[in-house]
Amino acid sequence: MNYSECIENARKRIGNYCKACPECNGRACRNQIPGPGAKGAGDTAIRNYDKWKEIRLNMDTIVSNRPVDTSISLFGKEFKYPFFAGPVGAVNLHYGDSLDDVAYNDILVSACADAGIAAFTGDGTNPGVMEAATDAIKNAKGRGIPTVKPWNIDTIRDKMELVRNSGAFAVAMDIDAAGLPFLKNMTPPAGSKSVEELSEIVKAANAPFIVKGIMTVKGALKAKEAGASAIVVSNHGGRVLDQCPATAEVLEEIVKAVDGSMKIFVDGGIRSGAD
User: Fold this and answer.
1) Per-residue pLDDT tens over the stretch 199-211
2) Is the separation of the CB atoms in 150 and 183 below 8 Å?
3) DSSP for residue 142
4) Which residues have C-beta within 8 Å of that of residue 2, sequence separation ≥ 6?
5) Residue 37, exposed/middle/buried by CB under 10 A (0-12, 13-18, 19+)?
6) Could you give the C-alpha distances from 109 to 13, 77, 89, 207, in angstroms and in order?
7) Which of 5-9, 158-162, 231-235 is predicted least confidently?
8) Cα 238 to Cα 45: distance, rounded to the nearest angstrom
9) If you compute the radius of gyration of the chain from its CA atoms, what whole number of angstroms results?
């Protein structure tokens, strides 16, 4: 199956929200949630994609002709490549009914582990989403990273119990999900966290903790203060706030400020190895 055939097949399975575009640049799904799109004008998702294209590659082929070592070490585990699968939750809501969360996570987590990488798994208002994700990670001998949304603290404690039982080698929180309306409308409300609240969550995790949703040097240093082992430079795929910088625009200054004290991931608009 080539890429064109893959896209054509996806259009039959992926539901009404994702258009399975030949070029996934955020333009066709702006101002559209549920689905992979963004609220508002959707200009941040588009900017994420565009800014990677402005960074050019230097070509130099006068080197030894031998295999390139792409492996990395993370929290005591070795991985074949320096990229992981990002978290997706509530699959039926966003991507149609061809797969549910149980089937999706079973496929994703095991396939990533077999390929020598790991999957971040998603979360949702339905408790079954995290239950399915952590079950899949447990079946993969802990080779996966559950991603807990920034719920209220009681809900987070319940989720962390599932995480611990899964044996996951790390846990993440997509704190950038604070901009999603369904979190703000909960009782008690979920969403953004203070350094003190985040520190309490890090301790409850009892595993290397990754804060996803960092877009400033100040945010990175606050995550470090709270005890995070790693951060993801991310604006939630550009889905939650218009007129944000692209992740590519802020990555360098954050890396310099952190100065090797935490591991750093980045996402948003990345579509190929060239990115």
Assistant:
1) 999 999 999 999 9
2) yes
3) T
4) none
5) buried
6) 20, 16, 13, 19
7) 5-9
8) 4
9) 18
The edge-to-edge listing of strands for the beta sheet with 230-233 is 120-121, 145-148, 171-174, 209-214, 230-233, 263-266
Query: Where along the chain do its domains lie?
Result: 3-53, 72-266
Alpha helices of 55-214 — where are they, by DSSP H?
91-95, 101-114, 127-139, 153-166, 181-184, 195-205
**Rounded distance, CA 220 to CA 211, Å?**
9
On whether the CB atoms of residues 199 and 153 are closer than 8 A, the answer is: no
* Residue 3, pLDDT above cutoff 90: no
Site of tokens 């490549």 = 81
pTM confidence score: 0.93
How far apart, in Å, do the first and last CA atoms of the chain sit? 23
Classify domain 72-266 at the CATH superfamily level. Aldolase class I (3.20.20.70)
Q: Which two tokens stand for residue 149?
A: 């949304």
- Pick 116 or 16 by higher pLDDT: 116
Side chain identity, residue 236? H
Q: Name the token pair of 151.
A: 């719920």
Q: What single-letter amino acid sits at 1?
A: M
The answer to which of 45-59, 79-93, 109-123, 171-185 has the lowest mean pLDDT is: 171-185
Q: Strands (DSSP E) along the chain, which ranges?
A: 72-74, 77-79, 120-121, 145-148, 171-174, 209-214, 230-233, 263-266
d(CA 23, CA 3): 11
The owner of tokens 């609220």 is 39
- Number of other residues whose CB lies within 10 A of the CB of residue 92: 17
